[in-house]
TrEMBL record, chain A:
It comes from Leekyejoonella antrihumi. PROSITE patterns: ABC_TRANSPORTER_1, ABC_TRANSPORTER_2. This is ABC transporter ATP-binding protein. GO terms for biological process: peptide transport; transmembrane transport. GO terms for molecular function: ATP binding; ATP hydrolysis activity. Residues 11-252 form the ABC transporter domain. InterPro entries: AAA+_ATPase, ABC_transp_ATP-bind, ABC_transporter-like_ATP-bd, ABC_transporter-like_CS, Oligopep_ABC_C, P-loop_NTPase. CDD domains: ABC_NikE_OppD_transporters (cd03257). Belongs to the ABC transporter superfamily. Keywords: ATP-binding, Nucleotide-binding, Transport. Transmembrane segments: none annotated. Coiled coil: none annotated.
UniProtKB/TrEMBL annotation, chain B:
This is ABC transporter permease. It is found in: Cell membrane. Pfam families: BPD_transp_1 (PF00528), OppC_N (PF12911). Keywords: Cell membrane, Membrane, Transmembrane, Transmembrane helix, Transport. PROSITE patterns: ABC_TM1 (PS50928).
């Protein structure tokens, strides 16, 4: 996408915060002022470690929980967890674990047709036709309709879960780590499925992952999340070629590559993320950052644009050299 | 709003995924279920056919023939009032099995519904329902039933009432726990996000996944209820004499336990066999209905 054609935002997250717990001391800030935009027809990957707030954001977008503050806009109109059923239909979700996201006592047919009937997606007599259309969309055979979830493999189950999400004809799909519970060999086929659904149906997809390698060939843009905030957003190519945030650099360095000399390098990122209950002062990444300066301990950097479509939340964005593998000598 | 078309079909090459060939084992290959069903069916059949099978009137006294041992005329002998023990055993099955099965229904329904509501909605409803459950749970089951029957007076209806008042709490606890677990499952979240209302989520998605635990428990609960009736009969609080009933038969026979021991043992064995059959069914149902089987 060039700078000239500004893509339309289909889903906008503005300054969304989610706190858990009462009282002032032990509040867990799962999301701490998140800004994110999903453009129409794109696959936006949201990447971060466990506990970075990715799933919380997914839940808020899908409407299964509500944010503490901030706004979620769908086509410029604010939506909340108590949304109207038409708004609910537009945004559907695919869960991480295909073993628990399908009702073990319902055949694929009854699970899918229930959704079709409740939302009156198609007239009653066209349900059978619609079912086989959904099955072919996700690459399953019609004979799968009368089986129970137990009779499928993980990848097949995830296809069924995707079919259920597509049954109400959403235009936005929130996929919460849809491949992380699957075998590596199956992951690729499900990633392909997302790609073809996007191109065939024009879906806008927010694809959550904890691994950059998974989304490298799928996502148009990648947002890197750290401890409830967006650290960096960029086009996928840009992000991999010139990551600005030290955390992104570390994440990229940690992607396994088939090169023997990588084995000699120290781990790119030490330690655990700090507790989201007791956040560090200043930049939340400073305890683990190889470049941390006095400024980083005092003030928190905002997500600033450094180039077209590339925003970074780092005081030294653009100043850090971009060979993440050699970071330790430079600022030490 | 939707600017895309959903009419595209994928190329056939993408249809590589097919349902696995894994088949579910049919119910009749479940040994304990079949064994239990056979036992219980035989017991029920004997009870139903008691008027045809019983050689004598179970309440007709014949003091001339009292306390006889097994013979051609009286296969299991006679009791102290000269009543045929076999006939009383068959007629007793009618009473004990009927009450056992019927007494389970009300607590099953009430306990399941209240437990599902408490588990699904939580909050104040949960607190109120579970505190009531705690009150009933604080007393031993038998003691409470005996006390209630004592207050309500002997007879079948007070047995039903007493059992219903006491044993719904177990169903309530079981179902509540299962519902709380099921509510966290992603398929329930998916159903809610899919815009299904609470009644549908509970009835279609949670219900079928939790009811098996309650059904399994009901099987052992029938055994408990039969034990309660027998105990009440033994204590003289149950079915009013001279109606034949296993518990009162054991109570009547205990004074002759050293000489005519079979008079007490035979109804006891009948209780044990019935209990065994129901337990086997419960065991088989656990296998058959467990969600793991269909995972």
């Amino acid at each position: 996408m060039s700078a000239a054609e500004q893509p339309a935002a289909v889903l906008e997250v503005r300054e969304v915060t989610k706190r858990y717990g009462h009282g002032r001391r032990d509040t867990l800030r799962a999301l701490d002022g998140v800004d994110l935009t999903l453009h129409r027809g794109e696959i936006l990957a949201l990447v971060g470690e466990s506990g970075s707030g990715k799933s919380t954001l997914a839940k808020i977008l899908a409407g299964s929980t509500s944010q503490t503050s901030g706004q979620v806009l769908c086509d410029g109109v604010e939506i909340t967890a108590r949304r109207h059923s038409t708004a609910r239909r537009r945004i559907q979700m695919v869960f991480q674990d295909p073993y628990s996201s399908l009702n073990p006592r319902m055949t694929v047919r009854s699970a899918l047709s229930e959704v079709l009937r409740v939302h009156r997606v198609v007239p009653r007599e066209q349900i059978a036709e619609e079912l086989s259309r959904l099955m072919s969309l996700v690459g399953l055979d019609d004979s799968a309709l009368d089986a129970y979830p137990s009779q499928f493999s993980g990848g097949q189950r995830q296809r069924i879960a995707i079919a259920r999400a597509l049954a109400v004809r959403p235009d936005i799909l929130i996929a919460d780590e849809p491949v992380s519970a699957l075998d590596v060999s199956v992951q690729a086929t499900i990633l392909d499925l997302f790609e073809s659904l996007r191109s065939e149906l024009g879906l806008s997809v927010l694809f959550i992952a904890h691994n950059l390698a998974v989304v490298q060939h799928l996502a148009d843009r990648i947002a890197v999340m750290y401890l409830g905030r967006i650290a960096e957003v960029a086009q996928t190519d840009t992000l991999f070629a010139s990551p600005e945030h030290p955390y992104t650099q570390a994440l990229i360095a940690s992607v396994p590559r088939m090169r023997p000399r990588d084995l000699e390098q120290p781990p790119a990122l030490d330690g655990e993320p700090p507790s989201p209950i007791h956040l560090p002062t200043g930049c939340r990444f400073n305890p683990r950052c190889a470049y941390a300066q006095p400024t980083c301990l005092i003030d928190e950097p905002a997500l600033e644009r450094v180039a077209e479509g590339h925003s970074v939340a780092c005081w030294f964005a653009g100043q850090l050299q971009q060979a993440p593998t050699k970071q330790s000598e430079e600022f030490a | 709003m939707t600017t895309f078309s959903l009419t595209h079909r994928f190329r056939p090459s993408r249809r590589e995924a097919r349902p696995a060939a894994r088949r579910l084992r049919p119910w009749y290959q479940n040994r304990s279920l079949v064994a239990g069903l056979v036992i219980v069916c035989i017991m029920v059949l004997l009870a139903v056919l008691a008027p045809v099978l019983a050689p004598y009137n179970p309440i007709k006294q014949n003091l001339n023939e009292a306390l006889q041992g097994p013979s051609g005329a009286h296969w299991l002998g006679t009791d102290k009032l000269g009543r045929d023990v076999l006939s009383r055993l068959l007629y007793g099955a009618r009473v004990d099995l009927r009450i056992g099965f019927l007494a389970v229904i009300i607590p099953f329904v009430v306990g399941t519904i209240l437990g599902a509501i408490a588990g699904y909605f939580g909050g104040w409803l949960d607190i109120i329902i579970m505190r009531i459950v705690d009150v009933f749970y604080a007393f031993p089951l038998f003691l409470l039933v005996i006390a209630l029957v004592f207050v309500l007076g002997p007879g079948e209806s007070s047995i039903y009432l007493a059992i219903a008042l006491v044993s719904w709490v177990s169903y309530c606890k079981i179902v509540r726990g299962e519902v709380i677990v099921a509510r966290q499952q992603e398929y329930v979240q998916a159903a809610r996000l899919g815009g299904l209302n609470n009644a549908r989520v509970l009835g279609r998605h949670i219900g079928p996944n939790v009811i098996s635990q309650a059904i399994t428990y009901a099987m052992s609960d029938i055994v408990m209820d039969i034990m309660v009736i027998v105990t009440l009969g033994y204590l003289g609080l149950g079915i009013t004499p001279p109606t034949a009933e296993w518990g009162s038969m054991i109570a009547d026979a205990q004074e002759f336990i050293t000489t005519l021991w079979w008079m007490a043992v035979v109804p006891g064995v009948a209780v044990v066999i019935t209990g065994l059959g129901l337990s086997l069914i419960g065991d088989g149902l656990t296998d058959l209905l467990s969600p793991e089987r269909r995972k």
